[in-house]
Design a protein that fits this description.
70 residues, mainly beta, two-stranded antiparallel sheet, elongated
Length: 70
């Protein structure tokens, strides 16, 4: 496996899309592991602050509706 941008040995894979990323090409972005409803019906999220990101993929800022899965 090689970095998807420069073909150097990777240090890991993008948390969002799975592309291999080397140390020089890596970026960081918050990654939401899960969401749940807490006390008083307040939505809460468990987030990893500095997840490995390839900077090529574009994670969507809003949830995408998928009615075909119901």
């Amino acid at each position: 496996m090689r970095c998807h941008r420069c073909a150097e040995p990777p240090i890991g894979v993008c948390a969002f899309c799975g592309r291999a990323v080397c140390d020089a090409c890596r970026k960081q972005m918050p990654f939401i592991l899960t969401m749940y409803v807490g006390a008083d019906q307040v939505p809460k999220a468990i987030v990893v602050a500095d997840a490995l990101w390839c900077a090529t993929c574009k994670p969507q800022p809003e949830p995408i509706e998928m009615p075909e899965l119901t």
